[in-house]
Amino acid sequence: AGNAHGAKAIARRVTVWSEIFALLLAAAFAAGVTAIPLLFTDDPEVLERAHVIWWFFVAMIPVAGAVFALDGVLLGAGDAAFLRTATLAAALTGFLPLIWLSLIFDWGVAGIWSGLVAFMLLRLIAVVARAKSGRWARVGADVPSGAA
Question: What distances in angstroms separate CA 122 from CA 1, 4, 28, 115, 135, one per listed residue?
């Protein structure tokens, strides 16, 4: 609405609240490491794999809290082209190399989740840098109809 300063303040507030919720959610999942997987299966092989990936999952929740909050802010500001490029770059430089290495070195599901974590960390770096730059909060920027 023509208020770049206000948009930046809202972006900070949304990100802080999202991060608080994500940290609480991560703590709940960390505390439920033995109980939560049992809600879904009693298969010992599945439970063993869940144990391998559980801490990747828990560690990724706070990262995702910030990434997805800033995704919403940037999309709302009409910065979808930046998000497209950042996501593609993170996939090509983080996720794909690690899953290929996982295949080559037989790292299994831990290697795949390492790739997911790398992907999310690269996206975090990108969206935080973009948010801090302020380049997304342009007063009078054209937002395609139906994008808001």
Answer: 31, 26, 25, 11, 19
Among 26, 49, 19, residue whose Cα is nearest residue 109: 49
Question: Are the C-beta atoms of residues 89 and 123 closer than 8 Å to each other?
Answer: no
Question: Is 117 in contact with 67 (CB distance < 8 Å)?
Answer: no
The residue ranges of every structural domain in the chain are 4-133
> Which amino acid would we find at residue 62?
P
Distance between first and last Cα of the chain: 12
Interatomic CA distance for residues 107 and 97, integer angstroms: 13
Summarize pLDDT for 90-107 with one digit per residue, the tens.
Answer: 999 999 999 999 999 999
82 pLDDT above the threshold of 60? yes
Residues near 137 by beta carbon (within 8 Å), at least 6 away in sequence: 4, 7, 8, 11, 77
| Residue pLDDT, tens place only, 34-63 | 999 999 999 999 999 999 999 999 999 999
Closest CA to 120 of 70, 76, 77, 60: 60
CA dihedral 38, 44, 48, 49 (to 10 degrees): -90
